[in-house]
């Protein structure tokens, strides 16, 4: 298993970080204020702000890490500790499938967001996809003591949540290019998405 984690750290993680930085930076409007919920060590936030110095990102997380790339506020994982319409955008990067209160947390994000929400997460439309996603999650997060409830949803379930919370899908990206060949043949497929949601 150490070999798998080494491959992930050296081949997958840097590429994933670069791809997500570029994709999300291109979605954010000029001079946007952003709250990254579940920001981890903040590396993607730091890289976005280097690429887009007009953007200001604040990070919150339930875990305190020894080393972070941006200042991070610790919160309880339920109530986002900011007032209504405090940020232009709320950002979730591979966070919501780690929660047991997904709908409530997106609802909280809508409260705090002035304009919209950007979500990077997974589609699990088959039993095989759920197995692959669980394996990916375990390899990428178990070492960091991240909560792993494996709470994956199908595309239909995600779309139902957007409708329920009156969030309109402005743009969706399904080809993210997170994995190099040949890992993309197994781990990329139709498992990943980024969606830009607008408050209505």
Question: What does it look like?
Answer:
The chain has 200 residues and is of the alpha/beta class. The protein has one domain: Rossmann fold (3-Layer(aba) Sandwich). It is built from six helices and seven strands, in the order H-E-H-E-E-E-H-E-H-H-E-H-E. It has a seven-stranded mixed sheet with strand order 3-2-1-4-5-7-6, with helices on both faces. Strand 1, helix 2 and strand 2 form a beta-alpha-beta unit. Helix 1 runs parallel beside helix 2. It is globular and about 40 Å long. The mean pLDDT is 90.
Main attributes of the structure:
6 helices; 200 residues; alpha/beta; seven-stranded mixed β-sheet; 7 strands
Domain count, please report it.
Answer: 1
Lateral strand order in the biggest sheet: 3-2-1-4-5-7-6
Q: Which CATH architecture is right?
A: 3-Layer(aba) Sandwich
Oligomer: single chain
Note the total helix count: 6
Q: Uncertain spans, ≥5 residues at pLDDT below 50?
A: none
Kindly name the structural category. Answer: alpha/beta
CATH-assigned homologous superfamily: Vaccinia Virus protein VP39
The succession of helices and strands, N to C, reads HEHEEEHEHHEHE
CATH topology: Rossmann fold
Instruction: Please tell me what the overall shape is.
Output: globular
E-strand count: 7
CATH class: Alpha Beta
What is the distance, rounded to the nearest whole angstrom, between the alpha carbons of the first and last residues?
Answer: 46 Å
Global mean pLDDT = 90
Indicate the radius of gyration in whole angstroms. 16 Å
Biggest beta sheet summary: 7 strands, mixed
